[in-house]
Amino acid sequence: MVDYVSFQGYEEEEEDTLRGKYLTFFIDNDSYGIELRYVTEIIGIQPVTEVPELPDYIRGIINLRGRIIPIMDVRLRFRKPFREYDDRTCVIIVEMSGITMGLVVDSVAEVLSIPDEDIVEPPEIQKNHNRYVQGIARVGDDVKLILDCNKILTDDEVEQLSQL
Amino acid sequence: MPRVLIVDDAAFMRMAIKNMLLNHGYEIVGEAENGVAAVKKYLECKPDIVTLDITMPEMNGLEALKAIMKIDPNAKVVMVSAMGQENMVKEAILSGAKSFIIKPFKEDHVIKTLQKIL
Amino acid sequence: MADDFLNDSMLEVYIFETSQNIEQLENAVLESEKTGRYSEAAINEIFRIMHTIKGSSAMMMLGNLAELAHKMEDLFYYIREAQPKQVDYAALSDLVLSGIDFIQAELKKIQDKKPADGDANELLAAIAVFLEQLKAANGDLQQEQDTSSVQAAAGDEYALQPTPDDEHKSRPAEGLSAYEAVLYYEEGCEMENIRAYGVIHNLQGLVEDLYYRPADILENDETAAYISKHGFTVGVLTDKPADEMRRFFADVLFLAKLEFRELDAATFAERKGGAGTVRTQVKAAAAGSGENGGKVRAQETAVASSSGQGMISVNVAKLDKLMDLVGEMVIAEDMVVQNPDLNGLELENFRQAARQLRKITSEIQDLVMSVRMVPLANTFLKMQRIVRDMSKKLQKEVRLQLIGEDTEVDKNIIEHISDPLMHLIRNAVDHGLETAEERLAAGKDKTGTVTLEARNVGNHVLIMVRDDGRGLNKEKIISRAEKHGLLTKPAAEMTEKEIFQLIFLPGFSTSEQITEYSGRGVGMDVVVKNLEKVGGSVSVDSVSGQGTAFTLKLPLTMAIIEGMNLTVGRARYTIPISAIKESVRLENHKLVRDTDGNEMLLVRGECYPIIRLHEFFKVPTEVTNLADGIFILVDYEEKPFCLFVDDLLGQQEVVVKALPRYIQNKRVRGIGGCTLLGDGSISLILDVSGFVA
Predict the structure, then answer these.
(1) Whole-model pTM over 0.95
(2) Touching pair C, A by Cβ (3+ pairs < 8 Å)
(3) What does the pLDDT look like over A26-45, one tens digit per residue?
(4) β-strand C606-612 against C599-603: which pairing, if any?
(5) pLDDT mean over A123-135
(6) ipTM of model
(7) How many Cβ atoms from other residues are within 10 Å of residue C260's Cβ?
(8) What is the number of domains present in chain A?
(9) Which residues of A touch C660 (CB under 8 A)?
(10) Interface partners of C (3+ CB pairs, < 8 Å)?
């Protein structure tokens, strides 16, 4: 079942108009945000083909209309326990520096505009999922953790630490 | 918009002239790589002006010029020459070429020359 | 404003065209060198190419290149016109090849976005000297004059050109007026004498009579400089009003200044008649040694250039994109035709239409692939230059034999084999071939032969580099391997082939000294790596004293392969048919275990270590009993093994899709790509080299 909401219209807009906009999603009860300019698509979960010898958070690859996209389980990336996928599970397709990745999250919330003033630096503690958080945003009464997309896609230190 | 046929065996040169002319609102109706093709293209496209390189394989500019003048005595041909080809340019003028430009040429020279003969 | 038309795509075209021209030029020179003479066609071709490079380099403001090409052009112009009998062709070839090298180096700088600041002065001087010597040797020296700067000083005189009806026009007829115009042309507009002639030409029909100074504008090109300095004087007798004539002259192209005055009839006649004439000083132009004034052959004879064959050059990026799209088209077609939605339906018309569609997409596929195929000829020809240079430098006589250069290979692949081939050829000439004395002593021909051969074998292209030199020295190889700790088993147990393969190991030739097979600091392992990048491999064979043969094996194309689909648990894999030796079930063969407990399959006397794919890839499956699955026998680089899988699904032509970048970076062993099956699922393509690490 491939059921998707396409944000492809954003491809045509100037990158500048995407600044300050974030796509928010949920992992358990925590709300996270990721910069909209890196998001190309949002789809529902679909069958994943496993690829051997990859970290556990890389579930494998999928066929997205002929394109092969790797899939990363964000829960596992954040060292949280795995949760079975259900019909609310979404895959956020992000593209950054030539790397495309599908991020599996519990559910997707909405697109918000968050001005820079409302985002503060995260505390110094850098363990587990905190290392991927680049800022903490206040939205009304809520707090959303703004993620560093680049770190999520490229950071390998977590494996090294776990091998010690 | 004046319609131009560009003839030169070097793609580079054709491109150079084309870019210059496009900058000034000319329409390029055809390109040819040698004299034989030039004559054929002339018949096909009936351009207002032809820029004709002198040094080309198979049939050179001079012979192509003569052939074109035979087809259309009112043809407006500008010879494209290099330094040192005075004799051929002379013969070209005598054979009916309206003017000439010399490589390496500057954009304003080319435009002025073409405007003059239109 | 003058350079508005110059942009990136102009640069691309310039680089592309000039590179092509250089290649053609080099081939022309090498051919001529081989045959020992420069034919008229060759000289014309070289002249024409230099002429073209001069022109485009000047347009691109590359002064040093334009100048070099200009001087080369002059040199060959002289050779073409004067047809000298005494020419040192060897030196000439060297000269042109040096010029080619210079141009190539500058082009590379431009491509790398660095300034093209090469200094060609030495080369220019060498050309000048060569030309001098050439002229002297052929008795033409005294004709040489410096025509580049014309001394149009006082004292130059120019003859007056009498117009035809000169005699009886001493007084003006009724209604006619006389005017005189002096035209000064813009600086740098060039060929002022011809422009002046154009003016005169255009005056015909406007005037009854005219005169002009200088008069020999057509015969004498020196007049251009004179006009540039002193202006071009025209006197006319006409019934047209003054302002019309003034306007006519003012409209002349590239006019910088105009002096216009009315004359009375008497002055007109006087000026025309010749009072105060100036005479031409005969300069070198009159001497017919083939410089400016000499006979100019009106045309270049047609040389075998490919401009008549209806070829066009295509941007490689477009071709790549086309390839990708064709691949996707094949996949999409499969997804339609083999769609699970259609299972069990009776669809005769649909199937027929699908077959027709398959036929067409197949043809498109073949055609697009063939467009990307390029003959090896060009790459082979490049080697000629190398052999020539090396044989000269090493004082060895070497003959390069080319066979099968029409064999075609995917463009992508060509780019990756050029370097390995160069390396192998260099080795062959440098280390493989003995010196002339050694060869004669061994009863061989003085001239060594290096053979470069290409041919199609199945899904691959084989390229062989053979030499008839001294062959590989097994003892030396073994001792080197030992020294570098590369022996994995005692030398005595190694087959000849295994010994030879040692030279491909990384670390084999890292020494600073140049010994038999160090390859001058670049090891054979670099060759291997380059080939692996395109899915190729290399092997070597040799007979001591007789020679060595390297064989490169390349896939025809990287994009579409014949594959066998198989299953392990719920996962699907595809293995290239070319990798499969055979597939068997356990029942007909014996299972053995070695001393370490490793499982092996004995098939007709040969031992195949078993790799259980479900274990290798950690894939859950119910087929773990060896009696229930299938063994695929593989023979990779003389290392036989077999893969144990659940089942074979069947053979299929598959479009190889690269794994996403992220995954490629993780370097998964045994997986070389993936493909989409008809039902949309993904099958991982096996890379057999990954199983024998």
Answers:
(1) no
(2) yes
(3) 999 899 999 988 888 888 88
(4) antiparallel
(5) 71
(6) 0.81
(7) 18
(8) 1
(9) 61, 68-70, 99-100
(10) A, B
